[in-house]
Amino acid sequence: MIFPYSAPSFNQRQFGWRCVFSLTLLMALFCCGSLQAQETDQKKKDEEPEKKSQSVEALLPKPVIVVNVASVERILQDIDFIFELAERPEIAEIASASLANVNDLEGLDQNRNLGFELYLKTGLRPQPVFIPYYPVSKISSFIETFQSILPGFMNAEERLPREEGLYVVEAGNSAFYFRIEDKYAHQFHQRGDAALDLEVFETHQFKDPAQQYQQLTTQFDAAAQLDMSSIPELMRTTFLGFFRTAIETQLQQRDGESNAAYELRRMSGKQNLENIEYFLNEAQQLTLGAHIDKEQKQGFVDLLIKARPNSDLARSMKNLPGQASYFSVVTARETLPLAASVSVIMPRRDRKTYLNYLNYFETQLSEKLLTADERLQQTNSVQQFFAPVKSQVNKGHIDAFVQLVSTPSKKFALIGGIKVSSSSNLPAALLDMINRVEKNPDNKARIFTNAETVQGIGLHQLQPDVKNADDRQRRFLGGVPSLYVGADSEVIWFAMGTEIAVAALNEAIERIHTATPEERKVQRTAPFQFEFHIKPWLQLFSEAEINDSEIMKILDGIFTSENDLVLITTQPTETGVRSRFQFDEGYLKLLGVSIGKQFDRNQERRARRNRERGQKRDALPQPKR
């Protein structure tokens, strides 16, 4: 029996709700078809009685993967907000009318979460079982809504409940079963004669999604979570075995590959393999979630790694911030076109890896710049240059920054610095290495030692053998860029660009040197931080160039210096680490405008096709009456 329900009018909020539910259902249909497909040949039918006599395998207590959408109300508010920013609220109204044949999505609770879970069935060969869950207000209305969304070729019919709380919708050679518990409908898609899988679904005790995923629902509008603790040890070990074999096969030396290139590739591949093994063994949960803060007019995407309690990863993440950055007074500057900074305590397991890289590069430079006798000396310039760098890595504190700054002439310059252990030999060692590079027969750059001086630090200029700058170099950097490198006893400094790069680096170093001890101790940024502002890039183009490009015109109309920030930060949490991607209002508006533009193009194509079809019909000879 289908209970009567008054159909609400079409509006923007219904469109958003329909999109959310339809997307979830289509994902359920696709994944179920992929994961639950069963053979239906005669051999399987002959073996079915024997299989039914076997014990039924159970699902793991917890799902391995969860995709959770918060309350419909929050998603609707997000959709409203994005199209309000884009000044295109009518798009939802128009699109809503085209979904009028979906039963208005009746029977679903708009104030609770929905999504799907991926379980593993226990046994020697764990098998995936895909279970969507939907908040239900009226089961009869929900069944009608579900039937209306099924592909048109399916002839769906509702059967009476097999037992209390269990419903089935047949669709061709498959069936959709729904178990109603805690006002949620858990769904199972059966294809063929998968009787054992259905019995597993009927007997499993599902937890209340509202309670189980309360934290995901509170923090994010939509989130996906991978629970490593739910993966059986045998499956994890088997996966690592196959993965290790594949990586080791790829790490064989290739034909024609130099020993130096092979050694670098081998170290990189070995590190990647060790990192994956470490992550699978030390991490407990991986969560990717997104939400919109409407008051701040910002969007956020978070990547959360939860470490196993008392694990090495948990201890490493807790100690991640370490001490304040030497460069903190300049890394806190705002409105930079591009900037990145890092000041972290490196885990002990990583220090050996990075020392291996440094040893590799030291060996390569020694072979190119030093004679055999000089390489045997412990006081050669290459050794004296790398010694303070390796000492800093041994201490475990990685402290560096790089910035693309915009100068008064609206040209860019790249500057940066790397903190090393104190060494009075560092400036002289760098100068000797630069002189040897200049004399090397493979050198193709023009080199000027001590070409510039900033705050008492000599900068050596490496200029490419290019006379004329191309259009991009003139536009972004103001001419042919040079690389400037220098060092004091604690920092290796660098800049890239024209003369304006030297002035920008001088300003940054002066700001650091004149800062008080209290200012230097203040950590104004996250342990790792990356920021990007798009407005300074747009200012490099003339008004005529912007008006000639549709994309540039849209970007220039959307972004201002107050709404153009993309900020990426990595910080420890109580249980692990979080990387957050923050998008200012301009990017949310850009999303809405982009959808609106695509919608308009689709409407124009549809209208053009209708006109062409009408013209063809008019050109056909008319039948005589």
Task: Name its key features.
625 residues, alpha+beta, 20-stranded antiparallel β-sheet, 23 helices, disordered N terminus, signal, DUF3352 domain-containing protein
In brief:
With 625 residues, the chain is α+β, with helices and mostly antiparallel strands. 44% of the residues lie in helices and 25% in strands.
Describe the structure.
The chain contains 23 helices and 20 strands. It is globular, with a radius of gyration of 31 Å. Helix 3 (72-85) crosses helix 23 and helix 13 (348-369) runs antiparallel to helix 15. It has a domain at 24-37 and 57-206. The two termini are 52 Å apart. It has a 20-stranded antiparallel beta sheet, sandwiched between helices. By secondary structure, it is α+β, with helices and mostly antiparallel strands. Strand 14 (445-454) and strand 15 form a beta hairpin.
